[in-house]
Amino acid sequence: MDALSRLLMLNAPQGTIDKNCVLGSDWQLPHGAGELSVIRWHALTQGAAKLEMPTGEIFTLRPGNVVLLPQNSAHRLSHVDNESTCIVCGTLRLQHSARYFLTSLPETLFLAPVNHSVEYNWLREAIPFLQQESRSAMPGVDALCSQICATFFTLAVRE
Predict the structure, then answer these.
(1) Number of domains in the chain
(2) How far apart are CA 143 and CA 67, in angstroms?
(3) CATH number for the domain that contains residue 30
């Protein structure tokens, strides 16, 4: 087994969807810094959004993109154009001992696969599936959502 697989399996990431946001034409969502063993993530399903970090780094998110914040840093999401935006926000909780691993990663992991690649197509389908599952009361929904969130993180770290 490779080192990344061993590290992630040892830390047993637990993922959840926290919010499904449908936002109008002029919006911003500030987020304060959080607990170090928690990774925040955001994925777009419609529209566009700008992610601003305290360092001044700016990312533009499009449908199918996922941004993960391994150090749970403060950040602000805001509108790009006057179009409505749909954002899925979630967290991935790792054991406290994982903080050493998380602080060795970049402040922002941006998962934006090449258009029409296998990863791109999977993300475009996985995000709406995750939204649908999070609203259901089916058996195993928490485990399924958790594993999909962990897959986002694994793909982003591999990039």
Answers:
(1) 1
(2) 21
(3) 2.60.120.280
CA distance 119 to 144: 18
129, 121, 158: which is closest to 145 by C-alpha? 129
Full-model pTM: 0.90
- For residue range 53-87, list pLDDT tens digits in order: 999 999 999 988 999 999 999 999 999 887 889 99
Q: How far apart are CA 93 and CA 80, in angstroms?
A: 29
Assign residue 47 a region (left: φ > 0; alpha: ψ between -120 and 50; beta: otherwise): left
> Residue 115: is its pLDDT beyond 90?
no
| Cα dihedral 110, 83, 16, 77 sign | positive
Structural domain of residue 117, as residue ranges? 3-158
